[in-house]
Amino acid sequence: QLVVTQSPSASASLGASVKLTCIVSSGHSRYAIAWHQKQPEKGPRYLMKVNSDGSYFKGDGIPDRFSGSTSGAEHYLTISSLQSEDEADYYCQTCGTGVWVFGGGTKLTVL
Amino acid sequence: QLQLQESGPGLVKPSETLSLTCTVSGGSISSSSYYWGWIRQPPGKGLEWIGTIYYDGTTYYNPSLKSQVTISVDMSKNQFSLTVTSVTARDTAMYYCVPDVGATAAYWGPGTLVTVSS
Lengths: 111, 118
Description:
The complex is a heterodimer. By secondary structure, chain A is an all-beta fold. Chain A has no helices and 11 strands. In chain A, strands 2, 4, 5, 6, 9, 10 and 11 form a 7-stranded mixed β-sheet that branches. In chain A, strand 4 (33-38) and strand 5 form a beta hairpin. By secondary structure, chain B is mainly beta. A 6-stranded mixed β-sheet of chain B has the order 2-10-9-4-5-6, with no helix packed on it. Chain B has a 4-stranded antiparallel β-sheet with strand order 1-3-8-7, with no helix packed on it. Chain B starts with a strand and ends with a strand.
């Protein structure tokens, strides 16, 4: 069964960097994943797609501060030079045989 | 630029049928570049994929919702629709229609809030 796991919460200081983790269940580690951001009172925003080789393709207008990477079944979203508007929920999502699966999301707090 | 807009009733009674429509502009719903999908987010909860459809009618559904939902496409109106039957309070959510590009939501619209209540 395809399962996507994320830590429920993360925090980092203004101006610092943070690395959010997304784990895809065993047997599906080579699936590409996507990251989406959900700010309070706003609709979600597509950030990027991260392929199994670690290459990533960002959505229009996504700042350079956002980057993606992969190590086996673990996929990462790194946000550098954290800003207050980065405080949001971040969702990892993958797809297997036409069925999408979202992780539970990570709530990022900017201190 | 591709734009999607959800429309439908904001309030539905329990046990009734929820129907939403997504109007696509800036592109053709019959484009081979896209599937078209629905995603929802209940208040205080995470994102939940509902399903996707291709212009030829090929559909994929969330297994946990499959018995309750239908997605269809109307090429003449450049629209696709979502129907959820026998709704309960659990179906209260923001509903988003999205273009599926490479098995993800490349764009997100504003969404529409649907409340299930008598």
